[in-house]
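Input record, target 12 of the design panel.
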């Protein structure tokens, strides 16, 4: 209706104000309120005017035959029609007169074929709510629902109806919110009245000098800087305010009493709106697609409800494995029972938690297995890392196969895994203590810019650990940030040795970990998830996952403690440095042997100081 409204001539009819209604209802003792059933639609449009309401639908062109809400003059037309229908009927003061007036209203409505909405009509009330006020034989008062925010504030307002009296001889101040509608006039730091718009104070402020305090900082400069050039809208505002003699000063919003209620919102019990329902739906999806942390108590409850685990626990306590295995209950899962029977010597029962354990790992039933798999795969770690994280705390029959199936069917993993050719390795010597060597690299560009990643050599920990103090050596590639003079000065100032890797050989500086980070970010982008949140999920699991070389998680090596993840844990373990150092040495030797054999690597014969040929970087097909 935007185009038709430009051509429609609005009808000008006087609409009664709330002040007129208060005056007319003075002295009344009984009240009734009626509501028309779809009031606008009860007024029929003239046939020659219906064409301007035509609109297009999937079933063709349609047009209104009744007054619709989109018409610009609908409110005035409807108000005038109702006034004509009810003209001549006076309001009543007592019950008998009220009954006669109400009967006359019904007869008028019946004669005009106007129908009422019975659910919204109220009759013969001693008090009635209308337009934000409560009308009764005692007069009128604000609706408690409209002023509940003020009544429930900590510093209560005075109970007197008059907050303070206006004195035209005193200086006045108007405090306004950031929008143009709200204002509070004050004298001697006491509010006089609460209102909408500045023009309502014309009778009290016209000709007087007053001050306007606002939390809108640009407004102060607009009106106080004569050289400022404003747009036409602001110029019109300034022209309207030429009637007043005022000054403008700025006050922060937190000290602005006109903005008090917006900063002290009360809990509402109103029915949810469409936006609230949309937020609830989004929260429902997030709640049911993101796996929640699994607690030991939850595993305990599930174990008590699983017949197979209960049968195994009973067999362990009573040493009745033979009868349990030979004649199982019909409710027992035979495959799970057979798998648990094969490892019966490794099983135990936690008397404190009443849980079935394999060593220190919890044994889960079917109801929790998929959930545990999804928790371990948060951050999209690979197959080996996911299985290692699972085996740290839990076990169940077929754990390897189910983990592989989950990762093989993970769309994000399949779309982001890149196969790289295997290259010969040159193993880095393991430092003697944590925080002795550090590898740094840039991973980006990301949506928020480049991100600097730091990898500690001993646990291969990926995180910026600037709070842990200065270390002897930092290793990086030959990128421009690390080749700069400022970085060299920083290294000299901090007192650490900057070791740069061989050019064009990124594997010497944790490049494999950079690929893992990028795969996690691409998976987050593919699944339309927040990449920062997914990165934190990956890092959380990475910190707690035992490394394939040392057999110990990075957190245990650097912080000498295990990190708590969303998987349940019963028996914590602490690492032994000599143990993981020997494991690291053996793993590195085995890794080097396999890599050199696969790549057919041969030791070089040149010595330091020999003249050699250097492969130049190829810039075109002829270089």
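The sequence produced for target 12 reads:
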């Amino acid at each position: 209706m935007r185009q038709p409204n430009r051509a429609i001539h609005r009808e000008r009819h006087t609409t009664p104000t709330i002040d007129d209604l208060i005056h007319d209802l003075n002295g009344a003792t009984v009240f009734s309120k009626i509501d028309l059933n779809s009031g606008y639609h009860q007024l029929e449009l003239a046939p020659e005017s219906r064409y301007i309401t035509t609109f297009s639908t999937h079933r063709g062109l349609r047009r209104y035959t009744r007054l619709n809400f989109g018409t610009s003059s609908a409110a005035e037309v409807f108000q005038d029609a109702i006034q004509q229908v009810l003209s001549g009927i006076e309001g009543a003061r007592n019950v008998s007169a009220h009954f006669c007036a109400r009967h006359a209203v019904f007869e008028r409505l019946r004669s005009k074929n106007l129908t009422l909405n019975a659910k919204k009509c109220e009759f013969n009330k001693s008090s009635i709510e209308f337009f934000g006020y409560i009308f009764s034989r005692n007069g009128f008062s604000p609706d408690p629902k409209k002023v509940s925010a003020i009544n429930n504030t900590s510093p209560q307002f005075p109970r007197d109806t008059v907050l303070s009296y206006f004195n035209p001889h005193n200086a006045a101040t108007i405090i306004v919110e950031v929008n143009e509608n709200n204002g509070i006039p004050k004298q001697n730091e006491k509010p006089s009245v609460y209102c909408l718009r500045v023009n309502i104070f014309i009778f009290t402020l016209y000709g007087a000098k007053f001050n306007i305090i606002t939390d809108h900082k640009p407004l102060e400069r607009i009106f106080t800087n004569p050289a400022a050039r404003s747009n036409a809208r602001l110029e019109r505002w300034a022209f309207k305010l030429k009637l007043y003699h005022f000054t403008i000063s700025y006050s922060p919003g937190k000290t602005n009493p006109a903005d008090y209620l917006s900063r002290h919102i009360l809990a509402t019990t109103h029915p949810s709106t469409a936006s609230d329902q949309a937020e609830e739906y989004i929260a429902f999806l997030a709640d049911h697609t993101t796996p929640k942390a699994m607690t030991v108590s939850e595993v305990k409850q599930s174990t008590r409800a699983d017949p197979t685990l209960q049968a195994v626990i009973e067999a362990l306590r009573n040493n009745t494995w033979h009868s349990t295995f030979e004649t199982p209950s019909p409710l027992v899962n035979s495959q799970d029972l057979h798998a648990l029977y094969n490892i019966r010597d490794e099983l135990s029962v936690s008397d404190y938690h009443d849980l079935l354990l394999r060593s220190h790992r919890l044994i889960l039933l079917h109801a929790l297995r998929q959930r545990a798999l999804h928790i371990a795969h948060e951050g999209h770690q690979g197959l080996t890392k996911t299985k290692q994280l699972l085996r740290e705390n839990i076990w169940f029959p077929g754990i390897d196969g189910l983990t592989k199936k989950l990762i093989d069917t993970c769309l994000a993993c399949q779309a982001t895994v890149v196969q790289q050719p295997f290259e010969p390795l040159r193993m880095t010597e393991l430092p003697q203590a944590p925080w002795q060597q550090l590898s740094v690299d840039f991973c980006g560009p990301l949506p928020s810019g480049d991100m600097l990643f730091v990898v500690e050599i001993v646990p291969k920990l990926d995180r910026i650990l600037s709070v842990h103090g200065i270390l002897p050596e930092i290793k990086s590639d030959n990128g421009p940030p690390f080749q700069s003079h400022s970085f060299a000065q920083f290294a000299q100032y901090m007192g650490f040795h900057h070791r740069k890797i061989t050019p064009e050989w990124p594997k010497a500086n944790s490049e494999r970990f950079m690929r893992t980070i990028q795969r996690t970010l691409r998976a987050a982008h593919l699944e339309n998830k927040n990449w920062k949140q997914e990165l934190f999920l990956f890092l959380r699991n990475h910190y707690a996952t035992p490394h394939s070389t040392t057999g110990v998680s990075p957190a245990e090596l650097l912080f000498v403690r295990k990190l708590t993840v969303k998987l349940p844990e019963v028996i914590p373990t602490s690492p032994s440095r000599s143990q993981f150092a020997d494991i690291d040495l053996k793993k590195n030797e085995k890794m080097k042997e396999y890599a050199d054999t696969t790549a057919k690597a041969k030791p070089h014969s040149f010595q330091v100081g020999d003249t050699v040929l250097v492969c130049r970087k190829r810039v075109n097909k002829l270089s």
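The radius of gyration is 39 Å.
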